[in-house]
Amino acid sequence: MNILVLQSCSVRQLSSPWLQTCLQSVASWAQQTGFYYRFIGDELFSVVPEWYMAKVQTKLPVATDYARLIYLQQALAEGFEQVIWLDADVLIFDQGLILEFTGSCAFGYEFWVQEHKGKLVARSNLHNAVCVFKKNCVVLPFLIQTIASLVQRVDPVHLAPQFVGPKLLNALHSLCNFSLLPQVGALSPLVVADICVGSGAALELLRQQSQVSPLAVNLCASLIGEEAASAVVASLLTKGSL
Known about the structure:
- The protein is an alpha/beta fold and 242 residues long.
- The protein has eight helices and nine strands.
- The chain has a single domain, classed as Spore Coat Polysaccharide Biosynthesis Protein SpsA, Chain A (Alpha-Beta Complex), CATH 3.90.550.
- Strands 2-1-3-6-5-7 form a six-stranded mixed beta sheet, sandwiched between helices. Strands 4-9-8 form a three-stranded mixed beta sheet.
- A hairpin with a 2-residue loop joins strand 5 (105-116) and strand 6 (119-134).
- Helix 6 packs across helix 8.
């Protein structure tokens, strides 16, 4: 198939060696699988309307959630049969990753391990660190229109970073039953900490909950430090698994 993989990152962030490794893992995977690869730099927000940027101000993840969909839509309009978005802090630690699904679109699926009332819990969620859309998908233009409408009407004071990303997808999933990609998961800070030291209750809980073993993970860079990110990248690439 004529498939394009899209990623984006600010030039400023490219100075992080671990992030470069993440990006290279995706570029190598795309090349190995015969997909086209395209990187978007600081021009990412050029497709976001001025009123939208004025509304979100410094809450750039909300702008990113809209921008990625516009670039994916443009790529489909160019003639690609399928387009894949992977966040810059997604590491593919097993190059055998395959993103197969039924339907016209799919989103990432995670078990987020955190503490709740003194106990570790794993909450299942959709995430958009990976999202895939096929040609003529009706969900993509619907999401773009819905996000624009929500942002236009929301009070900026109550604009949460995941408002039109994971929160919206999880709300819609109960109605739409989206196809899921559990092979691209996400690591909470507690799991990252366990991976860095080699073991731990949070990591073990993630393993127990994951019916499909992830071959790639979103490191959620905004929640962990440079040292932890570097350590977990090195560990996953060495082991090739969680």
